[in-house]
Amino acid sequence: MSWEGIVSQLDLLPNYLGSHLLLTMLALALGIFICLPLGCLVTRVKSLQWPVLSIAGILQTIPGIALLALMVPILGTIGFVPALVALTIYSFMPILRNTVTGILGVDPAVVEAARGIGMTNVQLLLKVELPLALPVIIAGIRTATVWVVGTATLATPVGATSLGNYIFSGLQTQNLSAITVGCVSAAVLAIVLDQLTRLIEVAASKRSLKIGIAAGAALIVLLIAGISPAISSNREGHKLGSVTIGSKPFTEQYILADLLSDIVIRAGYNADKRSGMGSIILFEALSNNSIDCYVDYTGTIWTNVMKRQDIPSRESILQEMTDWLDDEHGILCLGALGFENTYALAVKVDFAGEHNLETIVDLAQLSSQLVMGSDYEFFSRPEWESLESTYDLNFKDLRTFDPSLMYGAIAGGNVEVISAYSTDGRIAAYNLKVLDDPHQAIPPYDAVLLLSPEASQDMNLINQLKVLIGGITDSEMRQANKIVDLDKLPVDSAAEYLKENIR
Q1: Does the N-terminal or the C-terminal CB of the chain have fewer CB atoms within 10 Å?
Q2: Burial tier of 345 (Cβ tally within 10 Å: 0-12, 13-18, 19+)
Q3: Where do the DSSP E strands lie in 1-77?
Q4: What's the pLDDT score for residue 153?
Q5: H or E, element range at 333
Q6: Same domain? 251 vs 385
Q7: Are 8 and 176 in contact (CB under 8 A)?
Q8: What percent of the chain shows pLDDT beyond 90?
């Protein structure tokens, strides 16, 4: 980590912080709008109290990232909306619980006195119970604020821009500067919002209108100052509209997304990158025009999306896949980029020499004694099922890692085998041997550029992106990955390298 690296990351802060702040504030506003009247209702209808609070409690036990992931298939879209809905739900419990606790905690003598002077139920609630319960309610909002700010960093995998973009991309590319800026920014934002909410709590406790107005004004100023740069950056200097570019959560995809972004910006478009999404979420987002383009791999589409188990020739797979995408989804496969990044099983070179390992057939004989590691997706993919059945693999244990940590795991002896990526520069750097797949259990993984049904109608965009078709070799992609993973340079440096070497 260097000062220069941190400064370079700060260029992205206005957009990431503004998006994070907007997402957080809207989720909290919706949470208050829903839970405050609901809390008042359950204090009046006692039979609702247990089921409502129980449901809110159950929702709270769902891990934040799981709740975010659930919203994508439920709502049928990616990005801001599913993230907003998930974060709103995540804010329910502390606001609802404290609303109920605060109202029920009002001194019964005060309630009785209010009734004695003839107050109606509505007057009792608005003029007595809510004002007295306000400090407790605001304490719940404070708790929800910190929770939502933290959970919003997990919105990146569902395509929502947030400070999590720093953390997820930094983790994948081992960029400590990005991780540091993301973590510190999220922590500072949580502290600032918590303290401003505390001031409102103090104002409620002391019945101080001045403190309440000051805290509210500060929140409004913070919101406007936070989101203005993000909004203005998306409106300036782009005459041809916006192109939303997707990517999966590993180094190569971040590089290619940056390369695509540079091309569309130079062509006069605004580039909106949605990074770190899973394969199926990304494909569905492309199908419904939530994103405009991204780079996928023929093997992924063939097995995961088309559900094909046969493995014809590389040319046949590309042609059949292209036709199927157009016929079934209206998606345009612009063509192959020129390199292949296939899954491969890798072991340490000295381990392979010690056990005479050359192919996966050799590995199968030892598999019951070995531990294998892989990324988040591989063990649930058809390719893994194909490898298992074809070679009768039966590992002692299967462990899932973040892709950026797999190589460290095998280097440290935590696992003996990993599912590597064939264009990954870390294969050579970590002195690993890729085992041959003699029975071709894994299909070809040629990188292809896909465009959504709407984007495929934009001939200017198509013409600008055609420069990538057949323009990147295996060795060039491997070198680009090395620039980020081993040389620890920014993703844009690797993208610049590819741009300079496109044939």
Answers
A1: C
A2: buried
A3: none
A4: 92
A5: strand 332-340
A6: no
A7: no
A8: 50
- Going by pLDDT thresholds of 50, 70 and 90, the confidence category of residue 13 is confident
Site of tokens 């799981």? 66
Query: Which among 159, 167, 164, 139 is positioned nearest to 149, based on CA atoms?
Result: 164
This model's pTM is above 0.90: no
Residue 153 CA to residue 148 CA, distance in Å, equals 9
Dump pLDDT digits (tens) for 443-458.
Answer: 899 999 999 999 999 9
In this predicted model, what pLDDT tens digit does every residue of 394-403 receive, in sequence order? 999 999 988 7
Is 80 exceeded by the pLDDT of residue 227?
no
Sheet hosting strand 332-340, strand order edge to edge: 270-274, 242-246, 293-297, 446-451, 332-340
Domain of residue 44, CATH code: 1.10.3720.10
**Number of domains comprising the chain:** 3
Q: What is the DSSP string of 390-454?
A: HHT---SEEEE--HHHHHHHHHTTS-SEEEEETT-THHHHTTEEEPB-TT--S---EEEEEE-TT
Tens digit of pLDDT for each residue in 38-83? 999 999 888 898 999 999 889 888 888 888 888 888 888 888 899 9
CATH number, domain containing residue 364: 3.40.190.120
- Mean pLDDT across 382-406: 89
Statement to judge: residues 325 and 348 lie in one domain? no
The residues facing 373 across adjacent strands are: 399, 418
Nearest 5 degrees, angle CA 125-CA 131-CA 132?
A: 100
Report the C-alpha gap between 149 and 187 in whole angstroms: 8
Q: Lowest mean pLDDT: which of 59-63, 146-150, 195-199, 219-223?
A: 219-223
Owning domain of residue 360: 343-434
Would you state the pLDDT for residue 238? Answer: 45
Residues 6+ apart with CB under 8 A from 245: 257, 260, 261, 264, 271, 272, 273, 274, 291, 292, 293, 294
The two three-digit tokens of residue 6, written as one number: 């941190």
Report CA Rg, the chain: 27
The whole-angstrom separation of Cα 54 and Cα 459 is 54
The burial of 392, by beta-carbon neighbours within 10 Å (0-12 exposed, 13-18 middle, 19 or more buried), is given as: exposed
